[in-house]
Specification:
single chain, mainly alpha, Growth Hormone, Chain: A, 3 domains, three-stranded antiparallel beta sheet, 3 strands, 69% helix, globular
Length: 562
Amino acid sequence: MLGGDKCVCVVFAVNVPTVSFGLALGWVSLASGESGDGAAGAVVAAVTTFAASLLGVPLSAHALTYGRKFAVIATSATFVACWALKLWGGAWCVLAARVAAGLGAAATWGQAPLLAQEMCSAGWRGAAAAALVPAHNLGVLLMYLAAQARLPHATVLWWCLGLSVVHCFAFLLMPESPAFLAASGKLDDAERALRWLRGAPAAATLRDELASLPAPDTDGSSWYALAKDMMSDNCRRRAFLIGGFAVVGQEMCGVLALLQYAERVFLLVQDAGGDGTRSGTLAAINVTLAVSAEPVLVSPAGHAVILGAVQLAASIAGLYLVERLGRRPMIVWSGVTTGLGLALGAALLPLRPLAVLGGVAPAGLALAAAVAADSVGLQPAPYALLADMFNYKYRGCAVLLVTAAGCVANALEAAAFPLAAALGGLRGALALAAALTLAYAGAAHCLVPETRRRTPLQIYAALCPSNSDKQTHRRILARFNIFRLKDTTGNSSIEKGEGYMNGDIDSKVKKMNKEHDANVKKVKEDAKAKGDGCGVAGRGAADCVVSVLGAGGGAGADSTDL
């Protein structure tokens, strides 16, 4: 199997729990009927899942310390518990199942971009990190299809349970993350895992990737210490805030709530006194789901299937565009398009379905366009951008912290959108969502840098140009890479040995640099005394000077690009 094929398999395997969360979200929002006919039940169902995900963030962080494989399997295990509890039945079991789904949600949205970034080659990383979005949308669409087909609930639950159980065992066959193995000091295992993931790469390419893996972590820093260290540096702190803004902001645009509640959200308006008539509520539902050829809702699941299909197709297209066009343009232009679509939907809301449009309401088409624009750019690009901004040491911490903030944003949106619709009507809720989305796009245009195919140091140089010449960000510790031994009398590189050891910027930077300078000076003096330079065979290792990559502050070098 070629490296690209294996990359696709890895991304798919990593995102199976994300599909499971999409199934759980689709089940709560449309298919199960667990929340009954009341308005409060639908809100509680959604808020419970998102609120529980806050607890899932520290649990996911703890699981990651045991390995990426373990964390993914543990995430699937939470969905095994979710579907098993739903099969068991009962009010308390349903509540516990929603909590389990929330725990799994935090893990999926935190782990999937992290693992994709670590296990895929440079040309795939952006799309791989963003693949969780179409995976989630696929799960939602599958559940909508099950509801449209009127499959028995028990049948649907058994299929969902089977998917999670099979994934728990199948993922045992996947390799561990090479970056995690390298950081754990298992260099031989890291090389074997990298060879498997890349297929049969050229020797030079493999050496370069091995050299870019992180150094063994001897400190064993806690997540709290990592977060404190990350926030203590001005450029990393700014990158974290901008990346967090990009991810959390797109969660608050209103499209999630529109799809989360599907046919129920406007029944909440009626219960709160919004429209006052059953027919008015049904007409509003028909407009929002955008797909009916009749002025009266016939099948809510059928309408949601169309929106779900549009969302999935757009998010798949986004995987290509996020690498082709870049992160920043996708965020800005998708935000503008989504905001305009929501605003147009609010403006066209009073218009009835037109025969020239096949019976589809004009406002419905505008909202469908907003959903498509959100899926093609606003959903995938921020996650790719966030993963680009940090090296291995800080990436997991940053992603999980932003995931926690995203969970809060999701819970607030799930509660606030029905309230806005009840107080200001459907038009007011859509207008508010449009204003927030357009404001987000404008702020992203001013704040967000382009990160596609850039190292974290290059991104920091763009974010903090005034600090780009400071040693904190410019000087990379000595990278001892015995794949590249430099001749002291020339510029040739000699390939020799296996393995590597590289450094990373940490609190011991001055001490390590001082020790390195002393070692290099001693080696040079020994080589000068012998007078014969460095040879390939028959000459002592003391005659060789280990290449120091990035010494002096090359902005393009980063010892932990992965």
